[in-house]
Amino acid sequence: MNQTRHWQDGQAAPDAPDAAAGGAHGALRGEDRGEQTGRPGQAGRTDQADQAEQAAADGASARDALLRVRSEVGKAIVGQDAAVTGLLIGLLADGHVLLEGVPGVAKTLLVRTLATALDLDTKRVQFTPDLMPGDITGSLIYESKTSEFTFREGPVFTNILLADEINRTPPKTQASLLEAMEERQVSADGVSRRLPSPFLVAATQNPVEYEGTYPLPEAQLDRFLLKLTLPLPGREDEIEVIRRHSAGFDPRNLGAAGVRAVADAADIDRARAAVSQVAIAPEVLAYIVDLVRATRSSPSFQLGVSPRGATALLNTSRAWAWLSGRSFVTPDDVKALTLPALRHRVGLRPEAQMDGVGVDDVLGSILGSVPVPR
Q1: Number of Cα atoms under 13 Å in the Cβ half of residue 85
Q2: How many CB atoms lie within 10 A of CB 348?
Q3: Other CB atoms closer than 10 Å to residue 196's CB: what's the count?
Q4: Contact by Cβ (8 Å): 287, 372
Q5: At what angle do helices 42-73 and 307-323 cross, to 10 degrees?
Q6: Could you point out which of 65, 68, 323, 335 has its C-alpha 20 to 30 Å from the C-alpha of 58?
Q7: One-letter-per-residue 3-state SS of 341-359
Q8: What is the pLDDT, as a whole number, of residue 213?
Q9: CA distance 266 to 314
């Protein structure tokens, strides 16, 4: 088994090697056999080989573009490489990401910079106690000139929606995002309107201030593909942040910082197609299921991971394997995504909290106890 560096919160992602075109070569070998035996179907095999070569080339091009995105975001963001990779995995797996960190660790700037590097439209909504559902999804407006109601789109009609401090708005407004997150549409007056593609909700919340907040219910937390924790930067990273600001860096002017678009929605579409072809062995699938089932029997958890969490771990592991330049998923890929994919889908028992045990601690113990396939 190939050994890979783990990606998890607070760790930089490794550079991905060039993609191999093994599928294309295999198809070409099949074509050669057809020529030697004189059997019909040579044209069909040639078409398959061409398609395989084109798919491999598209996948390699898309991977290169997304790796450039990481470098481009680094022009404005220091020390949050894992969060950048997590957001890219969210886009590749067509999911949503919950960002948790204390104020001032560049959560908002991170999302804005990523959208700029990907040439995607983004909108920011500050969630407050008086925010109404229609302020997010849009609402029907009466037009006096036509004496008719027309739908005015809300900020959810974008590629990347930054839901800032999502836990500061009441559950009714939080729930207004459920249809958009799950169905990629907004319904009003009996009409469903499709959202742009790609569509990702990047929601932020503060882990230290709980007064006046409305914690997200488990059903909505389960809609997030990943929960990423943004740590405070290390000493050297913090020195670099201060150095950039002393040199005139303006977080409100990304263009002046040199951030430019190096990828687009077409690259994401090609990348998603490549990720869907990443192979996963039955033993690794069983390993994912064993990890998930272990959370349900853990004495420290009162709520274990649902089957949706298992599919999330599968999809994110495939995306991470592809970003790492491999066409198959290893157990190390699963381990690397276990914490961000599962930590928000479990609930600690009160006695575990009183003992000072954290969710990540328990998940780490489960990773150490569940047998790893060889």
Answers
A1: 27
A2: 19
A3: 14
A4: yes
A5: 90
A6: 335
A7: HHCCCCEECHHHHHCCCCH
A8: 83
A9: 24
